[in-house]
TrEMBL record:
Organism listed in the record: Escherichia coli
Domain spans labelled Flavoprotein: 1-89
UniProt keyword Lyase present: yes
Cellular component terms (Gene Ontology): phosphopantothenoylcysteine decarboxylase complex
Protein name: Bifunctional phosphopantothenoylcysteine decarboxylase/phosphopantothenate synthase
Enzyme Commission code(s) on record: 4.1.1.36
One example GO MF annotation: phosphopantothenoylcysteine decarboxylase activity
SUPFAM superfamilies listed in its UniProt record: Homo-oligomeric flavin-containing Cys decarboxylases, HFCD
Swiss-Prot/TrEMBL GO biological process terms: coenzyme A biosynthetic process
Length: 98
């Protein structure tokens, strides 16, 4: 879960609704002993980035890994589905094309 996502819903609320644990930190000491981001990437059959901010889309497209979500995207062999969350007027901009 990214910092931007936490502005919309808390990790605890998402965990309560989904019934699954929510990871929100790249440097979680308990998870990183087992390379948590790599394990999460292997576990997924599909990674869904929703809602994906323009910032997250740009970071993932550039191969940056500065938070848990972008690091999982680099580590996973699974397909990554991106569902943009942006103003419809911005969507035609070629800067968002991959």
């Amino acid at each position: 879960m990214t910092e931007a996502a936490k502005a919309f819903i808390t990790p605890l609320s998402l965990q309560a609704v989904s019934g699954y644990p929510v990871s929100d930190s790249l440097l979680d000491p308990a998870a990183e002993a087992a390379m948590g981001h790599i394990e999460l990437g292997k576990w997924a059959d599909l990674v869904i980035l929703a809602p994906a901010t323009a910032d997250l889309i740009a970071r993932v497209a550039a191969g940056m890994a500065n938070d848990l979500v972008s690091t999982i995207c680099l580590a996973t062999p699974a397909p990554v589905a991106v569902l943009p969350a942006m103003n419809p007027a911005d969507v035609p901009c070629r800067c968002h094309a991959a």
